[in-house]
Amino acid sequence: MIPEGKFVGQPVKLTKEQREWMVDIYDSATRMFILSMARKNAKTTFSAFLLLLHLCGPEARPNSQLFSAAQSREQASILFALAAKMVRMSPDLSQYVVVRDTAKQLACGELGTLYRALSADASTAYGLSPAFVVHDELGQVKGPRSELYEALETAAGAQQEPLSIVISTQAPTDADLLSVLIEDAKRHEDIRVKLRLYTADEKLDPFSEKAIKQANPHYNVFMNKEEVRRQAESARRMPSSENSYRNLILNQRVNMSNPFVSRGVWDGCAGEVDHDALAFGEVYMGLDLSSRNDLTAIVAVAKDADGEWQTEPYFFAPSIGLSERSHRDRVPYDIWARDGYLILTPGASVDYETVAKWLAEYCASRNVLRINFDRWRIDVLKAELSRIDADLPLEPFGQGFKDMTPALDTLESELINGNLRHGAHPVLTMCASNAVATRDPAGNRKLDKSKATGRIDGMVALAMAMGAGSGTDAERPVTIGSDYQMMTV
Predict the structure, then answer these.
(1) Pairing assessment for the beta strands 32-36 and 343-345 based on DSSP bridges
(2) Which of 152, 331, 365, 474 reaches 20 to 30 Å from 57, CA-CA?
(3) 438 and 366 in a common domain
(4) How many structural domains compose the chain?
(5) 168-180: per-residue pLDDT in tens?
């Protein structure tokens, strides 16, 4: 019986979409089935159907272990609660299945099968041998790794034909685990990994019914249309609610913390970079050293013949402890280093000698007119530059509202107008998705690392580079004609 909602107590009748998902899973060999759509489309209830199918139905294997996994205890209990209600509402099922509420378990004694709900206490997942796993709301995992996910998936290696079901709305960023799994499934490199992704086309009006229907296959079945429309209108009126609406109702991959630049705008500037513009044109740079064991970011910009800004971002990180920092920040530094997007320096902290030599060599091969820098630890870098007798056009750039506001205004304008190319550099894209701008009472803005959801060093460097190239930083005189100068205040 349907366990809850407006059809509670009625016999289950699968929708057209649910029948298609069943065919996807069982009509051919399946190792993992990823189902991503907006909230309130009964994806957890559907997973509870599958759970009972493997616990005491025709897919059950004697003495097998079944699990559902979630990031919180509350989320982990939802699937268990739905399955337990189905058992209690069915005289047939309740003959064979025992519900253990305290332990969040369902057991079928006749078959020896046992289901347990697990939360993100990964230590409990080692030593298990799951034949069937539901990863519930995997989009809540930040970064490309989850110890609980990895423990369960690797433990399934002892099973002949293990099956994993992933159900979730989309994760905020491309670097998050669910996004990595979805992109891998899209490439069809493993035919046993299957994907059903329901998301609104970003070209559509996000508040239109057409966009809502694309992300909600059960919009006309289970959902309260009036309430969904109310949420859409609320998001239209209040921009602060738009990203949450896009993620939860439209199932789009957006950061709900309202980042400085939206995903759609950033992706619209992901065209191939014209490196000749930087090799032969006037180059401006931004330098953010950060702390010793974090990312050091250098971004170079130059205009091409059509007046578009071309970017070259470079990132430095210490080679020792790279794996640990990948785990801490939940981003694939090790993979980026392997693929050439991250420059590793010797030791356990960023080696400023390496950075100084690289910067001197880069400037020697290009027409670099100005390098705006954050004053943090610049004295250490200047000492290294002095040792190698490198004289570079370094200029201090404040990180407060006075200096950052005009630079961010320029950067935002160029991004919105599609007048900047970043080539979808993965480290810079991560920084863009994390960057959050805060305002003072006068409406001025700056990038705030304390409000960010992760590293933003690349965006800080990009903003400083644009400030240098556009002449918008507060300390730089702007030439008017040939006889006068004006200081912006």
Answers:
(1) unpaired
(2) 152
(3) yes
(4) 3
(5) 999 988 878 999 9
